[in-house]
Structure formats: structure tokens, C-alpha cells
Design brief:
The protein contains eight helices and 17 strands. It is α+β, with helices and mostly antiparallel strands and 309 residues long. The protein binds pyridoxal-5'-phosphate. Pyridoxal-5'-phosphate binds next to helix 6 and strand 14.
């Protein structure tokens, strides 16, 4: 499928034509994966496109960069990057919403495993991207397996940084799942607790209560995860962050995945055990989330930054 190109890409403050937005083949991030990034979405609303939780995403980008010096030495504050993103969406004319990918990489000039002498480069791209796991998945759910790959751990690659190279771990699990006929993989932590999907957080509904693994079990501190917990509590659903093992998935009443790309995607089967079609708690949270990001609920207006302020 051809890439859904936009007009411009932001590179260190310059708006560059999409096809001219290139880096040298000896850019160190290409060789060692030393970079950080974010995934953000803008949604169409009645007042034009609005970005969901823009600032928290850019704050997380800055936190990821702090884990990986010298990526934290970029001259762009959180405000600068938020402004750059809003400007880029306007220039690219994404009236129907878009996906936003800021990344900080090590620029060309040095090579080797010491990143410190390299100069970081900041890049922001936007494009129009539909449902990550497919439109059908949002309604009918996905089939998942428990991966034979463990999720990166606290003392290997810090799970709370969103670093480019750590996604080798996710992609290995994803390829294994796809080649085994599943849609997605669930990864366990090094000590065998459920961590998350390859690019999504995970929630279980049991006896009407919402459960999700604590960050100490290795999932990324997802921004959609936080939004879902807030929505659930507002709907009167009890929420607990608690360690889960694979049997908790087999015996769940409902399971769903959350993420900027995947939004809220129900899980209908785990390792051949049927969980069932999208359940009532999932559906209620999913529809509230959609209404919130589309600017239809005053209660959650604070999550949105409108492109034309
Ligand atoms: C590994 C991983 N887990 C979870 C998530 C979901 O996080 P968020 O809701 O902030 O997109 C992502 C996406 O960023 C991810 O890459």
C-alpha cells in the first residue's frame, strides 16, 4: 500500500517537502536504534481538527529523551514542539484528523556506540492513518496470542522510555503472532506477569471491575490508558492496577487494548480461548472515548488542543 504522504515534514524548525525529508545512510540511529519518538492523534471535531492530549505526549517525549542523552539537549521546549505540531497539521491540511510522529534521532556526523558526541535532530511528520488494527477490529475485536518473547525489562531497556530500538522487541512478538495466524501478541514481563500488547496497553473486565497491569510489570505508561481509567471511574466502574497472569486473560469477561494507534480495540480470543464479542463495559468506554476525542463531551474538553485555537 502506498504511504499516505502529506505535503511537508518539520525538520529542526524547517518545513521540508515530504520526498526531500531524508537523512544520511550513516545516521547512527539507523544503525543502533538510539532515538526516541511519540505517536499522537488528531481527530476531526466540529471546530476542525483537535489533538488528543498533545502536551502529555510531548512531555513524555522529553522524558524519554532524558533517559537517552544527548537526545535531551534539543533546543525545543514542550511548548515549541506543541506549536510546531499544530502548525504542521494546519500546513498539511488534515481536516479529517491525522497521526503525528515526532522523533528525536542522532544526526549524521559521528558513528559508534557512544552517542554523546552526536547532535540530536528533531523531526515531526503527520499523515492520515485509519484504524491501526483495522476498522473491523474496533467492533469485532482481535485474536491474540501470548508471545514467547518477554517484554523488555527495567534493567535491559527501560520500558518507560519510548525509544526507537526497543520496538525490535515488539516487532519480534508481532511477527511471531501474525505468522501464527493471530492479529496481535500479548507480552509477559520477565517474571511472567502480563505486561501489554506490542504497542498497546491491556485491560481486563472481571465481575464488572476493570483491571490493568501496574507500570512495575513493564507496560508503557500509556496516555490512552490514563484516559480510559478516568472514563471508567467517571462511569462508575471500579479500576485497579494489579498484576495479572495469563490465566486472568483466559478467564476474563472482557479484554481490550488501548493506544494512540489502536485506540480502544476489543480482544475476542486469547490463545484459542474465546473471550467473546465486544462486551458492555468495553463498548461503553469505547463510545465515551470516541465522543471525547471528537469534542462532543464538555467533561473531557481539556484533553483536546484545537489546531486553530
Ligand atoms: C509499547 C506501547 N505500549 C502502549 C502504548 C500505548 O500508549 P499511548 O496510549 O500513550 O499511545 C504504546 C503506544 O505509544 C506503545 O508503544
Amino acid at each position: 500500500m502506498p504511504f499516505p504522504k502529506a505535503d511537508k515534514i518539520w525538520m529542526d524548525g524547517e518545513l521540508v517537502d515530504w520526498d526531500a525529508a531524508t537523512v544520511h545512510v550513516l545516521t547512527p540511529t539507523l544503525h543502533y536504534g538510539y532515538g526516541v519518538f511519540e505517536g499522537i492523534r488528531a481527530y476531526p471535531t466540529e471546530q476542525g481538527p483537535a489533538v488528543f492530549e498533545l502536551r502529555p505526549h510531548i512531555e513524555r517525549l522529553h522524558r524519554s529523551a532524558k533517559i537517552y542523552p544527548p537526545l535531551d539537549s534539543i533546543p525545543y521546549s514542550v511548548d515549541d514542539l506543541c506549536e510546531a505540531i499544530l502548525g504542521l497539521i494546519e500546513v498539511n491540511g488534515h481536516e479529517g484528523g491525522c497521526y503525528i510522529r515526532p522523533t528525536i534521532i542522532l544526526g549524521y556526523g559521528e558513528i559508534g556506540l557512544n552517542p554523546l558526541p552526536s547532535r540530536p535532530q528533531t523531526i515531526i511528520a503527520t499523515w492520515e492513518w485509519g484504524a491501526y488494527l483495522g476498522e473491523d477490529a474496533l467492533v469485532n475485536g482481535v485474536r491474540v496470542c501470548i508471545s514467547s518473547y518477554r517484554r523488555i525489562g527495567k534493567n535491559t531497556i527501560p520500558p518507560q522510555g519510548k525509544a526507537n530500538g526497543q520496538y525490535l522487541n515488539s516487532s519480534l512478538a508481532k511477527v511471531e503472532a501474525l505468522r501464527s495466524g493471530y492479529d496481535e501478541a500479548i507480552m509477559l514481563s520477565e517474571d511472567g506477569y502480563v505486561a501489554e500488547g506490542t504497542g498497546e496497553n491491556l485491560f481486563v473486565v472481571r465481575d464488572g471491575v476493570l483491571l490493568t497491569p501496574p507500570l512495575s510489570d513493564g507496560p508503557l505508561g500509556g496516555i490512552t490508558r490514563a484516559a480510559v481509567m478516568e472514563i471508567a471511574r467517571d462511569l462508575g466502574v471500579e479500576v485497579h492496577e494489579t498484576s495479572l497472569v495469563r490465566t486472568d486473560l483466559f478467564l476474563a469477561d472482557e479484554i481490550f487494548l488501548t493506544g494512540t494507534a489502536a485506540e480502544i480495540t476489543p480482544v475476542r480470543e486469547v490463545d484459542g480461548r474465546e473471550i467473546g464479542p465486544r462486551g458492555p463495559v468495553t463498548e461503553q468506554i469505547q463510545s465515551t472515548f470516541i465522543d471525547a476525542v471528537r469534542g462532543r463531551l464538555d467533561r473531557y474538553k481539556g484533553w483536546l488542543t484545537y489546531v486553530e485555537g
